[in-house]
Amino acid sequence: MLENNRELLRDVQGSIEKLDGRKRRFSAQIQIPYSSKQVWQVLTDYEAFPEVFPNLKNIRRLEHPTGNLRLEHTMLKRFMGLDFKACMVLDVEEIGSNEIREHLVEGDFKEFSSCWRLTPISTLLEHGGVNLAYELIVCPKNIYPVALVEYMLSQDVPTNLLAISQRVKALSSIKNSQTS
Predict the structure, then answer these.
(1) Rounded to two decimals, what is the model's pTM?
(2) H/E stretch holding 49
(3) What is the dihedral of CA 2, 96, 109, 163, to 10 degrees?
(4) Structural element, H or E, at residue 114
(5) Given 3-state DSSP classes, what are the helix, strand and coil percentages for the chain, each rounded to the nearest 5?
(6) What is the sign, positive or negative, of the torsion defined by CA atoms of 85, 168, 93, 13?
């Protein structure tokens, strides 16, 4: 579903910051011309993530000891003719209806934590929109070259934000055609 178009990726603003040692912070944001509610529905439809994110091959809910949300992610990325696979178990916390925090429980990274944040924006557009910001702090295990992880995530983070925007647009189009 994701359009492979560099022109569209220009709508995503992003940066990489080197932290202590092998740790990196990836930040990105995109303005989406749909409501916070529509974007939130896509962000919290966890079972549909493999349809949204190009490198996420599987996701499943796991039992959490306190009843909260715990997800297992399996990612697969093809790079230079090789397949790179990463598995993680993440605890997910939804804060209100505008922030989602994920924290690594176990997996193929030393550290992995992320935050999705929605901020309504008022623009000249008839329906306004939302700014979707994403921040990821990651530290790969020593078996993974930092430069490789940095390169792959610098490609994947903007692509994932664009994928969310396109998913919201597609679902909105489907909903509009059903109500017409």
Answers:
(1) 0.87
(2) helix 49-52
(3) 0
(4) strand 109-121
(5) 30, 45, 25
(6) positive
Residue 56 contacts by C-beta under 8 Å, 6 or more apart in sequence?
49, 50, 73, 74, 75
Sheet of 24-32, strands arranged across: 13-18, 24-32, 129-140, 109-121, 99-107, 82-95, 69-79, 56-62
**One digit per residue, pLDDT tens: the chain, 180 residues?**
344 455 555 678 888 999 999 999 999 999 999 999 999 999 999 999 999 998 899 999 999 989 899 999 999 888 778 788 889 999 999 999 999 999 999 999 999 999 999 999 876 556 679 999 999 999 999 888 888 888 888 888 999 999 999 999 998 877 655 554
Q: How many Cβ atoms sit within 10 Å of the Cβ of residue 52?
A: 19
CB-CB contact of 130 with 118 (8 Å) = yes
CB 165 within 8 A of CB 32: yes
Say if CB 39 and CB 168 are below 8 A apart.
Answer: yes
Phi-psi group of 16: left, alpha or beta (phi > 0 → left; psi -120 to 50 → alpha; rest → beta): beta
Question: How deeply is 100 buried, as exposed, middle or buried, from its count of CB atoms within 10 A (0-12, 13-18, 19+)?
Answer: buried
